[in-house]
Design brief:
This protein is mostly helical. The protein is built from 7 helices and no strands. It has helices spanning 24-45, 52-57, 66-88, 92-113, 115-149, 155-182, 186-214. Helix 1 (24-45) runs antiparallel to helix 7.
Length: 219
């Protein structure tokens, strides 16, 4: 006796995630871009700044500068892949992926227009922090539970990647502010900004990889 029920259909094997090695290409571009931006920031910090237009072009936290636009593009790419996943899904799983589309578009747009920096400069730093923490603490568990209940393939890894983005976006900003409050060294601030912006880019790339790996295949 094997314990099998006569006539019962065997459970289909769990589908493996698809390879996401292609993400290494934009990751390499981002690594080069952020390294160049750090070198420019350090040179400016010691009074050897390149031409003003060049330095603004690669400023780590400059609105419209390449580092921010890179991270914004990665988040928008997440939204695009999630949209493809929604199209290929059925039932409530389609709504789950649609929620990921919304998150990717919101994060990408906010990064591109420097929405959080604008709010913080207007005196809303703690409002931004508290609001972000509340949205993450409430929204991410709900997203995960919905994904599990609706049998969404990849709900756990994608939600974990989103949690990593929340930690990077909310936490690393506080680290930069702590460095700014205890140090007057422009080099230290440049390095802290590099860690903040680079960490957000890495988190966005990990989310892109998770979304790419676990999006539904064509049927």
């Amino acid at each position: 006796m094997t314990g099998e029920v006569w006539g019962a259909r065997p459970s289909p094997p769990a589908e493996r995630p698809r390879p996401a090695r292609w993400v290494l290409a934009p990751a390499s571009v981002g690594g080069l871009l952020f390294t160049v931006a750090l070198l420019v920031e350090v040179r400016c910090a010691v009074g050897r700044c390149p031409a003003a237009g060049w330095s603004r072009f690669v400023a780590l936290d400059g609105a419209g500068a390449l580092p921010r636009l890179f991270t914004a593009a990665v988040f928008l790419a997440v939204g695009l892949l999630a949209a493809l996943a929604a199209v290929r899904s059925t039932g409530r799983a389609r709504w789950w992926w649609a929620a990921v589309v919304g998150v990717g578009v919101v994060l990408g747009t906010a990064k591109a227009v420097s929405a959080s920096s604008t709010v913080e400069q207007g005196g809303g730093r703690y409002t931004t922090l508290v609001g972000g923490v509340l949205l993450s603490v409430i929204g991410l568990p709900l997203l995960w539970r919905a994904g599990r209940r609706w049998a969404v393939r990849g709900a756990t890894p994608v939600t974990l990647a989103l949690a990593g983005c929340a930690v990077a976006v909310l936490g690393l900003d506080q680290v930069t502010e702590a460095v700014r409050s205890v140090s007057v060294s422009p080099v230290a601030l440049a390095v802290a900004t590099y860690v903040e912006e680079g960490g957000e880019a890495v988190a966005a790339l990990l989310l892109l990889a998770a979304t790419s790996a676990w999006r539904p295949r064509r049927t």
